[in-house]
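Hi everyone, sorry if this is the wrong subforum. Our group has a chain we'd like a structural model of before ordering constructs, and none of us has done structure prediction before. Sequence below.
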Amino acid sequence: MSLSRREFVRTLFVATAQVALTGPLLSRGLFAASSPTSPEGLNFLVFGDWGRKGQKDQLDVARQMGIAADQIGARFIVSVGDNFYDYGVSSVDDLQFKTSFEQVYTAPSLQVPWQVILGNHDYRGNCQAQLDYAKVNTRWNMPDRFFVRNEQIPGGVPADLIYIDTNPFIHSYAKDLRMGAQIRSQDSTKQLGWIEEQLAKSTAPWKIVIGHHPIYSGGEHGDTPELIEHLLPLLEKYKVQAYFAGHDHDLQHLQAGGVNLFGSGAGSTVRPTKMIEQSKYSKSQPGFMAVSLKPELMEIRMIDGSGQMIYQTSVTQKLS
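Answer:
Right subforum, don't worry. Here is the predicted structure as tokens:
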């Protein structure tokens, strides 16, 4: 059975208590759901830790991303970092821009703007080259190491998406032989002040922050103490509804201090993960997240590399 785009979105982004999880759902163009809601929303994909020159897991995820982006009408793609393994890129002419990006994410639906931030593996190469690449390829949006995008939900409701660079916050990175010099050139205190300034002046009902490192995580790297100390209190203070990250190669949903934490670092190779105190879901499987942001509700679906929807949840705009 084939569905129109509107019918598909109606069944994809619904608030349900349970969902049937059998079969390659995206490849069938169908999600089982209990009750439809409006298909109108600011729809986008979130994923990270992907740049591996077209290895199988990366290609599988890219293929399903193309299908999902087409069927939900994704407005943009969010990359939470580690865009190129293992040592970033050397220059704006680095072949990896083709082998890991241009030649992999070829679906017409993925030719929308990509909002991109830096991961630790990107810091092992030339970060400025990724900033400069934005001037060469208009799909690649990285105006700075941290920046804000003021988005509009259909109907005119604003949403502020704040993209940050978490790498300079990690104390051990300053001593790393490959990335230390670039890390030390960044002022994490200044960036933290900038983050608070953006959150404090935002009047948008939705505030979402995107960084590379998780705050809490059941994955291989685990929690990030520096973000627990410095970033989480700001997210709580200014009632940020969600924080998206990568770094750990898995798919996770956690909650801390009323903030929903999403780990979407399964764009290619995955590693073991587990449930921890803050966990609501944790899975070691290649995949990505499909997000629909509506005036009162944000709906998140985790999709694996075979097109299976493996988890779904929703976040209300007004936090308790």
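For your construct planning: The chain has one domain: 5-316. The longest strand covers residues 297-304.
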